[in-house]
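To whoever picks this up:

The parser on our side crashed when reading a file containing two proteins. I've narrowed it down to the boundary between the first structure block and the second sequence. Both blocks are reproduced below exactly, byte for byte. First block:
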Amino acid sequence: MVSFRDYLDNKENLCEGKQAPIFKVSSKNDDVCKALEDIDGFSVKDWDSQPIVATKWFDSDWEIKITVNPDWRTGKLIVSVDLVNDRGRSIRHKDVRNERELLNTVEEYEELEMRMNENVSEALDKKLLDKNGRIKNYPDLTPNASEIDLFINNDEKIYKSKLEPIYNKLASDNDNKQYSSEKAVDAFAKVVELGLKTYNSNWPDKKISLSKDEKLQIAVGLAKSFEDEYL
């Protein structure tokens, strides 16, 4: 499979004059589609369509859309990236000139989507909490969720950069009587997203996709572990 990085790095004259940012066409439509699907989480529904559209969906029903529109008069590709909300409205749009800009824009939109939809605790079943507002039991995890949970709990970089600061913050909240299980779940949900992204980056041949509920259950389990150990 041709990687998108290789595909773009092999091109010349990526940007021309004051035209929209463009990439130069060199081969078949299939090569472009394969390169787009090499970007983590993206898929092309119709390989024969023009323009070519690659989409990455989120559990929030938001999506990132990469559009590659051939301009047959110039023999080039016009490439743009959109962040589309759950109502089908593009809230961010950017034309990109090269591979670095494309990947940076995708990462920027992923982080924005996470911030816009970060309060996952709203889906937390209150029956899971005891009379003191603490999580009663550890959730039953699916095999894929268990794999990501195990990875998060054993990755030293994630522990030092994410888990340890969250533990300290939540412990301080508890000392100040400001702790809540819902806030803890929201905090750990961000770690779950990072853990999943890191896992798939480390092992691209074993990529895992999790549903919103699976991610929530992992976050609940992490919050339960914190409460058992620190509170």
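<<boundary where parser fails>>
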Amino acid sequence: MKNLLTTEQLRLKYDPESILKDIDANYEKHLEKLRGWIFQEDNPINNYNTVQQISFLETNDQKDTNLINELLTKLKDTVYFMGLSKKERLVVTQKMRGFYSGLITNYLKRINVIMSDPELLSPKQFNDPIPKHRGIEIVFEILKIISKDLELESKYRKNMPRAGHLTCFQISMGGFLKKLEIIGMSQKNRITLVQQLFHTFKVDWKEGDRENIKLSLLKPSTEYYERAKVDIQNLSNYHYPESLGDNLISNMINQAIIFKKRIRRF
């Protein structure tokens, strides 16, 4: 246990907070530039100004505004990465992955240490039976579920493709590109839109022609997005003992979803 860093120690080692703060500040700084890009006359999004599955009580202007705001929000991380060089993008991705991988590894080790002692707080004693510690039993049930998900996440991360200078875009643009697909935008127009976006922000990627955008961005972005979506949905399918109660189970699922979204962000 002495060699296991606490969450605070890992935070000091990788300093993820500085990156997260920069992402927020950078988004606010370039929001108007982002709006300017999305409202360009030749932007393909202008051909898709009707959002389905929105209340019919809203006006077209309201629908368009909701769509634009949703799309801009989904580009929050992307805007930050567009301002970095290839090398800087890779360094940030590796740094954030290192932080979250460290968390997962340490959490697993700590849980395993606790669960390795089945007599915790209820030691057996010759000719002196001791009742089961109900509190510890519940703790062990909870830790088993958490451990299962952490182990699956650890396995997933070990099998992830090696990070490159495009990985940040492949992950951060998933929700954005999926939304464009949902509103009916063709792949051709999605590629055009990405080209315009990267040109507007002068992204360090000279090789970003249409075919490269299709193969190196759109395809892996969809794969990352769909895998994260499935894994998050599966959190509700774990076996949760009824003895934990609905409120606790609901809270565990919600916390697991929040954690999963954070560690899959980079």
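After patching the parser it read the second block fine. Residues 122 and 196 are 65 Å apart (CA to CA). The mean pLDDT is 91.
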